Request: fold
Amino acid sequence: MSTKALRLGTRRSKLAMAQSGQVADAVRRVTGRPVELVEITTYGDTSREHLAQIGGTGVFVTALRDALARGEVDFAVHSLKDLPTTQPEELVLAAVPVREDPRDVIVARDALKFTDLPRGARIGTGSPRRMAQLNAYARAHGLDIETVPIRGNVDTRIGFVRDGELDAVVLAAAGLNRIGRSDEVTDFLSVDTVLPAPGQGALAIECRAGNSAQDAALIAALGELDDPLTRAAVTAERSLLAALEAGCSAPVGALADNLADGQIVKEMRLRGVVGTTDGSRTVQLSTTGPVPDTHDRAMALGRELAAEMLAQGAAGLMGERAQ
Reply:
């Protein structure tokens, strides 16, 4: 490969720049080439509408993919949960590195935990998935909360708590870890309480699927950053999302985790949940099987669980389904 600098396309947010910077360091190590970050503004960054209103699917991704297709950047880094489930033929998912903590977390006033929040506590989140599960948990455990739709970066969201406008906000553990702010977390939400978004905590490294020797060499180099277990897990989660015909702003949670016997990973458990945002109705199921050793088997795991969820009425809980 040449010694020319590789151009990494990234969103401009503090979190995107941090995680892209971490990938850039890893790519420098495996290629021996300099990597420069190319900042790209996406529709999701400029729109002030709530994600559920603008559809969510692809709003943080399309501009990066367009820059890739035009040859303005050599590869791009995405938060995998933002990727639409359909992969464009001209692009390839070259690597899914080891996943960060997939859990959601609470940042609350007075260092409170979720279950210690006062009656009528206002909890901010822009995610219908989080609203559905928090409200379902509250109903089941006699808690009195109000979920409030919000937008904005990490500073903006935590600012709502600091200013006293909200009692707590929900964020992704992975994002706070990547920008060095995990010390602000007041409670980690167990995945038994709130299942994360499909792909949450994982990054996607995407490049052109061209036929040139340069493209092939870059795909091979980036592939060294791929973690097979993370890729299998997120493939199963995203397959479930696709089979439910739901976009990434739908109230769908999914998590595939590996069940180990000592140091040896024996099985993969896939859990999925769909619920109405008020928490009044949910469908939550899980399945366990051998760790998928191919893309097709990981896809099948997700499709099978989605079929069971649809048979139990999941489609009716998602509102507007993605087309």
Remarks:
- The chain has ten helices and 13 strands.
